Prior knowledge:
The chain crosses the membrane at residues 101-119. This protein is an alpha+beta fold and 364 residues long. It has helices spanning 9-14, 16-23, 27-39, 44-58, 68-84, 100-127, 132-135, 282-285, 293-304, 312-315, 329-340; strands at 60-61, 138-142, 149-152, 158-161, 166-170, 177-188, 197-201, 204-208, 212-217, 223-230, 233-237, 249-251, 255-260, 265-270, 287-292, 319-323, 343-347, 350-354. The strands form three sheets. Strands 2, 3, 4, 5, 6, 7, 8, 9, 10, 11, 12, 13 and 14 form a 13-stranded mixed β-sheet that branches. A three-stranded antiparallel β-sheet has the order 1-16-15. It has a two-stranded antiparallel sheet with strand order 17-18.
Amino acid sequence: MANYTDYEVEDFLHDDFFINWVQQGTAEQNKFWSEWLTNNPDKQKVAESARQIIMAISVKLIEPGLTDDEVDGIAANVQNRLQNGGREAIIRSLKFYQTQWFRIAAVLAVFVTIGIIFLKTRNNQAFTGQTDNQLNELVNVVNNTTQSKLVQMADGSLAVLKPGSGIKYPRSFKAGREAFLEGEAFFEIHKNPEMPFLVHSHDMVVRVLGTSFTVRSFSIDKEFKVIVNTGKVMVYNQHEKNTGTKSNVTLLPNQTATYTVKLSRVKKESLPVPLILSTPVAPKEFTFDNATLADIIDKIDKAYDVNIEYDRATLGNIHLSASLSGMPLDEKVKLICRAINTSCQFIDGRIIITTQNLNHNTAN
């Protein structure tokens, strides 16, 4: 067995055992990597970067896409632009251009780097000249429709807000990450060990580092629910200053907590059937082999309780092979759009796939 503690991103991209886990994920592999990542927290970011690259490469049209020359050209073009922009120190020299697979990995890694640079620059510009009051201004979203609404927060975390629900959150998370919920929402929180995310709902507080879970907390209910899909979640009474008291509950995937309002008590239970987005189930449910786009989107709609809008007649019969497990909702949609050369928009809580850039040769 390789000494994974010495691995960097490119080493993971060369490792067949790691690649097979990302792409197929047997029960044995899931157990090994779950334990290894838990025992090696300093390597989690490196492994996650490699995993995202491999998942991105796994999404492909059944018909061949880029030629070797096109891939080489893209890589050279992007690297030239980075060097001309003074970013030569950002990208390390990669030594795995021998095959098209690894050249594509390099291209994706470069584009990810560009995105990170752009976001950091844009965020720094946005903070300039703003007062603390402006930074802490709350965004208020209320869902008065009959369908779930997608809410994208400042750090990229998502909330799928259910009908009859409302959420408030700071326009900027510079001072801390938190949201205030009335009703029900499914959350996908970006991981940030240095800044936990808090969801406040009546007397209940849900504390996470980076995970996905559902909170159901309508004011008329006598009990509130928290259901965990991935990661680890702590649930406690907000009036208890000491988070180590016995009423606090820590939840793992496929566990639920019920907060009884009258007793101010939290009870933990395991779910009888694993959730579709949970770690044991998602790799199987969101790995597609020559599936139609319609089937893939139907699966996403059902899992997240959303309604992705697209031209089913034009796009529905395009066939894809894709591994989408482990990605948040918006990344799943974006990756599909890149694969079929379309674009997506997230407008007023709606998810819309447009066909303006569609290469009609990809449709069957």
